[in-house]
Amino acid sequence: MSDKPVNRRAFVSTAGLAGAAAVLSACGNESATANCADGVAAEPIEWKMVTAWPRDFPGLGTGAARLADYIGRLSGGQMTVKLFAGNELVPPLEVFDAVSRGTADMGHSASYYWKGKAPAAQFFGSVPFGLTAQEMNAWLYRGGGLELWREVYAPHGLVPFPAGNSGTQMGGWFNREIRSLADIKGLKMRIPGIGGEILRRAGGTPVTLPASEIYTALQTGTIDATEWVGPWNDLALGLFNAARYYYFPGWQEPGSALEAMVNKAAWDALPSHLQAAVEVACQAVTTDMCAEFTWHNAVALKQLREEHDVELRAFPDEVMAHFQQLTREYLDEQSAADPMFARVHASYRDCLDMLRPFSAVSEQYLMNLREPG
């Protein structure tokens, strides 16, 4: 055996995709159709994928592009996915409708954008003070979350998949200090999903904006504050030039899952080996994105502090406690009014209750004991 060091992550990623591609592409070879469950010949398939992100935007835009690339490689070239970034085919916040009506076969976005169409969709993005990225994957892949997600999207002719996670986000950029609950009153902040509703209940005004409009809105005073993702993406948007204070923690998005949604008719038309290619590609992108955000957020935070003199601030305890209480009230109220919301809430809560005790005596406890750098 060679004594040369091996990059295990690169080896596993490359070998895993190569191995899966070898198996899946055999089904795309006409001479091998006898070995395929569907027994179909290899006919080229081209999908359109629309996204909510700017083209090549770090993590989000590049993650969507990687998903398209993985599908092509896993299919052995039988299937190609042409990517359209936000505003190239449809506006960023119209991805859901575009895929639902068949304008595009696939979309990449975040589910909390669609709360007006399916309130329970918000759970599959992130819930304030809820599941972390690792816990979110546990719920979706092992705790029944994905099955519920597909039930929520079924009336819209969509099949959803987890396709990335940006991890715990930051609290956001503010042009005024937050010293108490009084400073939330009248605050105009770009913040989607359940977090936006909590801000509204606390006296603020939530605004939903795509990435392309955030900087200008913050710089011109159209909004007073914004959360976006975390240091890596925030640095890319240059938000440090538009606001002075950078707050933590990202109470509104402790583990933000991204989604790939597929038009149901397009999905049903795929042979099983290409359906498998899509599923495996989504799982690979989820793993890649978690690792990518963990690393690059750390690098970018160091850069923001050392090169741009960004002021990091923690939210006051009273603000966090009030937001927690408002979150509980909101979830209970919505559950009482919407049976599907109640079912998803119950599953999410049960998963959190199951995972919390182990997290407390494993990662959470150990991280508090680690020697400071």
UniProtKB/TrEMBL annotation:
InterPro entries attached to this UniProt entry: DctP_fam, SBP_TakP-like, TAT_signal, TRAP_DctP_sf
Source organism superkingdom: Bacteria
Classification via Gene3D superfamilies: Bacterial extracellular solute-binding protein, family 7 (3.40.190.170), Periplasmic binding protein-like II (3.40.190.10)
Keywords: Metal-binding, Signal
Positions that bind Na(+): W228
Binding positions for substrate per the UniProt entry: Q169, R190, E227, E253
Biological process, per Gene Ontology: transmembrane transport
CC per GO annotation: tripartite ATP-independent periplasmic transporter complex
MF (Gene Ontology): metal ion binding
Name assigned to this protein: TRAP transporter substrate-binding protein
Species in which this protein is naturally found: Marinihelvus fidelis
